[in-house]
Amino acid sequence: MTHYFLTGASAGIGAALAKRLCENGDRVSAVARRNDRLATMATKLSGFWSAGCDVTMANQLAESVAAAENAQGSVDIAILNAGIYQPQDGSAIDPAIYANHMDVNYMGVVNALAAIVPRMIARGGGHIVIISSVAGWRGLPKSAAYGPTKAALISLAESLHFDLQPKGVRLQVICPGFVESEATAVNDFEMPGLMTADAAAQAIIDAMAKNDFLVHFPKSFTRSMAWLRFLPDKWFFRIVGRRTGYV
Questions:
Q1: CA dihedral sign, ordered 128, 131, 133, 139
Q2: Per annotation, catalytic residue among 85, 98, 146, 246
Q3: Cβ count near 225 (within 10 Å)
Q4: Angle formed by the axes of helices 108-123 and 58-72, to 10°?
Q5: Is 146 tagged catalytic?
Q6: How buried is 79 (Cβ within 10 angstroms: 0-12 exposed, 13-18 middle, 19+ buried)?
Q7: Three-state secondary structure along the chain?
Q8: How many angstroms separate the CA atoms of 173 and 129, rounded?
Q9: pTM above the 0.85 mark?
Q10: pLDDT in tens for each of the 247 residues of the chain?
Q11: Which of 40, 191, 199, 232 has the fewest C-beta atoms under 10 angstroms from its C-beta?
Q12: Could you tell me the residue ranges of all domains in the chain?
């Protein structure tokens, strides 16, 4: 029986992951800011433990990790999923919105790593899954606050791999495309390859069983995004601009 520590568990991919993992017979320790939702989930899921927690608060997150291990045993796999997305008009920049994205999406992961990594190293190993996004591959319309945080997570994981892999701590980065959630519900444009949260959760579970460092899905969409990463800038701006109505 595997013990998962999961951030951002109260909705979207996080809630779907918690449900599937518990149904598989595993233990899930879940944290999120909306403790009321976690309490409701706890009444329905076996092996589920939860705590209200703001990932931007390092001390609070460290206490939650300690409490989770006291309640359910050592964390085998940490899935760092908490995140926010607010579409942005680049002609009207509000620094507070950008800072909030960085605090939640990036520093929330750093805070979790600070709490989890020493425990895994002391035990001789572990598995950490960081949920990034294809929005971190190249700049996309409306994603000026969100995309850079996801790019930063990819770079963070690549850098940490050199230190953690020799100590037995495995890192993975998951880059989903568009997933049905409260966040994407605000988008006013076509979202190619849109997946349900449940389908995305299963894709993440499948990915964790493989040895790939970076996993992206759905391939029908993300292969195209991968190709765009290597286009000359003028072609990239023209193609993406036309697809999204900016040209």
A1: negative
A2: 146
A3: 19
A4: 40
A5: yes
A6: buried
A7: CCEEEEECCCCHHHHHHHHHHHHCCCEEEEEECCHHHHHHHHCCCCCEEEEECCCCCHHHHHHHHHHHHHHHCCCCEEEECCCCCCCCCCCCCCHHHHHHHHHHHHHHHHHHHHHHHHHHHHHCCEEEEEECCHHHCCCCCCCCCCHHHHHHHHHHHHHHHHHHHHHCEEEEEEEECCECCCCHHHCCCCCCCCECHHHHHHHHHHHHCCCCCEEEECHHHHHHHHHHCCCCHHHHHHHHHHHHCCC
A8: 6
A9: yes
A10: 999 999 999 999 999 999 999 999 999 999 999 999 999 999 999 999 999 999 999 999 999 999 999 999 999 999 999 999 999 988 999 999 999 999 999 999 999 999 999 999 999 999 999 999 999 999 888 899 999 999 999 999 999 999 999 999 999 999 998 777 666 656 665 666 678 999 999 999 999 999 999 999 988 888 888 888 888 989 888 988 887 766 6
A11: 232
A12: 3-244
Q: What is the distance between the alpha carbons of residues 30 and 65, in angstroms, rounded to a whole number?
A: 10
Is the dihedral angle over the CA atoms 4, 14, 106, 212 positive or is it negative? positive
Classify residue 141 as exposed, middle or buried by CB count within 10 Å of its CB (0-12, 13-18, 19+): middle
Between CA 2 and CA 196 the distance in angstroms is 25
Q: How far apart are CA 246 and CA 65, in angstroms?
A: 44
Report which of 68, 69, 18, 65 is spatially closest to residue 44, judged by C-alpha positions.
Answer: 18
Nearest-angstrom CA–CA distance, 26 and 9: 15
- The count of other CB atoms within 10 Å of the CB of residue 149 is 26
